Amino acid sequence: MEFSRYLNPHISLKVIEYFKLPPQDKLYFQTRLYNKLPDHQKIKDQQQSDNLTTKLQDIQPLIEQLNKKQSQKQVADYIQDNLWLVEQSYQALIILFDSGHYEKAYDIVEKLYPYVEQNDKIFNLRVGFQWARLLNRVIKAFDSEEDRAKRINQAFDDLRDLARFDECNDKNFRARAQLLYTGLILMFLGEQFQTFLEIFATDQYFEVVFTLQTNLLYYYAVALINARDDYQGYIGISQIANSKKYTKSALVNYLDLLTNQFDFQLTNNCLLQVEEEAKQDVFIAPFTNALLQSCKIYFFQVYAKIFTTVEISQFQKYLNCNAEQAELWIVNTIRLLQINAKIDPQQGKIYIIREEANSQNDNLLQSIRELIPKSNMLISNLERIMSAKN
Fold it and tell me: Which pLDDT band, with edges at 50, 70 and 90, does 154 fall under?
């Protein structure tokens, strides 16, 4: 994935460090982290340092107000009378962040953002502050292993809010790309597949995928197969499977064979390619085993919807294990998927018990019957209210 083009360079540098990717010195030229460049590449940054010092001195009174033990109203009143300090603070935290002073930048944006959000006169700064808060939280997620899950959840909250803004959805294609790539990195970092899909499984972000990099469909497939049972969003496994012609991904091919063609034999053979593909991807490799397990569970889920009899010996070959292990795996998967089934150990078969259509119709009719008196009561009450008004 060519991530550095659409990620903030500081986030890209953290990705390179965390996932042990080849270094890219060119990213430092997009930041103020000059001290990390080789001596012959260093750039004089004294002017920027002086600029930051001046801005920090200017906003010191505001920082003191934010750190004081006083009510939110008192702070809000002070900010209302000194709105220019908020703009200065925004410029300062940008320079702090770009210079690698992440803790100071994080402290400013976390304390100041709630007041920016509530004040209509500086509402135009909200998007900028939220982007700053998002980037600082992502940095925190990389740097702090203890509360990484908390920081990732907070960053996803910012992504969700930013995704709602018109300029990120309809007007600014690059902003959408930046949000998408940031979401992918957070998904890899915290294995938050469902959360990623809730935000980015929409046509607006699929437009980004098909315009920039169709190989991102692979990561959507990974997210969908892992969040299979919990995610009920707009774009699902079948849509990804139908996109097979746009990518050479083994996983997307696996989903197409299973979801559209119901070719269980070829799907089984394809699983080795899915494993190899996952191991070769630096972002997916850490949870390859979990991905393969999800693929197998989805295989059984589709199989059980078509066939009513499952032969344990057949799945023994598919799972590459003995009969006892295969039976145990099938039983556990049936429980996980909440499938009604009966085991015949002597025959080595498992029978899927389907709910009869008549039973489903009876349940529907019963629900309708229960609605009728409730509807009559509601109509009666409305008529009484209308009569009283007249």
Answer: very high
Q: How wide is the angle at C-alpha 48 spanned by C-alphas 44 and 52, nearest 5°?
A: 150
- In 242-356, where does DSSP find H-type helix? 250-259, 264-280, 288-306, 312-319, 323-337
Phi then psi for residue 310, to 5 deg, are -115, 120
User: What is the pLDDT, as a whole number, of residue 35?
Assistant: 63
In this structure, what token pair is assigned to residue 337? Answer: 């998927």
The first and second tokens of residue 28, run together, are: 């430092």
List the Cα angle 347/350/356 in 5-degree steps: 130
Average pLDDT, stretch 193-221?
88
Residue 238 token pair: 């079948």
Query: What separation in angstroms does the CA of 316 have from each of 35, 41, 266, 320, 329?
Result: 58, 60, 16, 6, 10
Please say if the pLDDT value at position 361 is more than 60.
Answer: no
> 309 phi and psi, to 5 degrees?
-125, 130
Q: Span 307-334, mean pLDDT?
A: 86
Residue 233 clears pLDDT 60, i.e. is over it: no
Transcribe 18-54 into DSSP letters: HTTPPP-GGGGGGSS-GGGS-GGG----HHHHHHHHH
Q: Which two tokens stand for residue 119?
A: 């004040």
Query: What amino acid occupies position 299?
Result: F
Place of tokens 């010191």: 60
CB 25 within 8 A of CB 9: no
Contacts of 51 (CB under 8 A, 6+ apart): 95
Q: What gap in Å lies between CA 277 and CA 214, rounded to an integer? A: 16
pTM score over 0.70: yes
Encoded tokens for 135 = 């980037």
Residue 345 to residue 220: CA distance in whole angstroms? 39
- Distance of alpha carbon 127 from alpha carbon 168, whole angstroms: 10
- In which band, very low, low, confident or very high, does the pLDDT at 68 lie, cut at 50, 70 and 90? confident
43 in Cβ contact with 213 (< 8 Å): no
Angle at 26 between CA 22 and CA 31, to 5 degrees: 115
Rounded to the nearest 10 degrees, the angle between the axes of helix 72-81 and helix 83-98 is 100
